[in-house]
């Protein structure tokens, strides 16, 4: 290649890099492709083009550019990191990890890549390796938000509440953006531990920033359920149903809460709203319990039979039917229901 051609490639590569940094991705692609026509093996051009394609979410094209660099130089750190990132974009964490590990052999203090490896292991359900790389990252950068969040998520999934809280609270203390997700996750941990007042403190903080956050709204309702205050549980859960009219399980859950409060008409409306979304065994059994409490035993039996039409051996439906028949004095029908319960 002549000196003039080499100089042209260098200038085009610099121009492509400037365009990339300014977010002009399509223009950067054109410039890099022009440079590639002159020198198809130039690692700066190929890596730059890989970066452009990665930003454009063209991950397979991106990976091909980095792979071409690595065929000539398998220690090129830009291509190693980029090849891993491309596989990450292709949702191939297992294929991404070896590229990043080779990268870390050369650039061993890159905490960002450690976090990416940890995230990949977490996706692969390898918690031990994920924790190892999150912790390595935190040695280098103790308050890295992605490492703390990732490590906290691993511990949260393991129900290791103390360690999860340590990560999340450390992150929240340093995070000036008041992360709503963190607040709800911390609330979830305290709720799981039945520390309802502490949980609600965090849900309320989240709702001050995002009044329609359904995770925080659900958490508030569930905390009041845990405190046996079903009136307030219904109040908070209804706010979710205003936003999510197709949330079938919540229609039924609120129906059950209303039934416990003897607000029968409202409970029936909620069970029917659930059934408008799709068949729901628990909504039908809720209707059966309402009818039973109102003394309409035939209607109660009818709803149980509706449930059994879809799942003829369902134990809960058969047990509910037997109980209702006992209350109604339908002795033979009660025994028949018990005889149908799978042993």
Record the SSE blueprint.
Elements: H1 3-21, H2 25-38, H3 43-55, H4 59-72, H5 77-89, H6 93-106, H7 111-123, H8 127-140, H9 145-157, H10 161-174, H11 180-192, H12 196-209, H13 214-226, H14 230-243, H15 248-260, H16 264-277, H17 281-293, H18 297-310, H19 315-328, H20 331-340
Helix pairs in contact: 1-2, 1-3, 2-3, 3-4, 3-5, 4-5, 5-6, 6-7, 7-8, 7-9, 8-9, 9-10, 10-11, 11-12, 11-13, 12-13, 13-14, 14-15, 15-16, 15-17, 16-17, 17-18, 17-19, 18-19, 19-20
Keywords: Repeat, TPR repeat
InterPro entries: TPR-like_helical_dom_sf, TPR_2, TPR_rpt
Q: Let me know the number of strands.
A: 0
The CATH topology of one domain comes to Serine Threonine Protein Phosphatase 5, Tetratricopeptide repeat
CATH class of one domain: Mainly Alpha
CATH architecture name of one domain: Alpha Horseshoe
Shape: elongated
What is the gyration radius calculated from CA atoms?
29 Å
Please state roughly what percent of the residues sit in beta strands, choosing from under 5%, 5-15%, 15-25%, 25-35%, 35-45% or over 45%: under 5%
Span of the ends, CA to CA? 82 Å
- Number of helices, where a helix is a run of at least 4 consecutive DSSP H or I residues: 20
Query: How would you spell out the order of helices and strands?
Result: HHHHHHHHHHHHHHHHHHHH
InterPro entries: TPR-like_helical_dom_sf, TPR_2, TPR_rpt
Pfam family, one: TPR_8
Keywords: Repeat, TPR repeat
